[in-house]
Design a protein that fits this description.
Helix content: over 70%
Number of helices: 7
Shape: elongated
Oligomer: single chain
Length: 123
């Protein structure tokens, strides 16, 4: 019974985390907030400890919550790169990154720079 309750709680935390990430990234891109939050801040917003957030996400999905945070940023970046005609530096600034650090971040997670991704995938 207790294990089942913990599983439900873990699922609930995961669901709230992903909903929060979507809203937060949208808020950053829409300039309703000026910075990407750290995981500790997100955990606080969800009214749980940082450790509980990590444990819950890892239990449900086998990966650290930061992996999914980065994944959502990369997915949104790819969408912008393909749909909008704005510079990569402007996209980086939208995500509150320094442009050179953003290119390194993107390449470390996708294997290519934002510019090469755009050139290879834009139709």
């Amino acid at each position: 019974m207790n294990e089942q309750k913990n599983k439900r709680r873990s699922e609930e935390i995961s669901e709230k985390y992903f909903e929060f990430l979507d809203r937060h990234i949208d808020d950053v891109l829409s300039a309703r907030t000026t910075d990407l939050m750290a995981l500790k801040q997100i955990a606080s917003e969800l009214a749980i400890s940082h450790k509980h957030l990590i444990d819950s996400i890892q239990h449900e999905f086998g990966k650290h919550p930061g992996y999914f945070y980065d994944f959502k940023i990369i997915e949104k970046t790819k969408e912008i790169l393909l749909k909008a005609d704005i510079s990569i530096a402007a996209i980086a600034r939208k995500f509150t990154y320094d442009p050179s650090n953003f290119s390194k971040f993107f390449k470390s997670r996708t294997g290519q720079t934002p510019g090469s991704f755009r050139r290879e995938n834009k139709t």
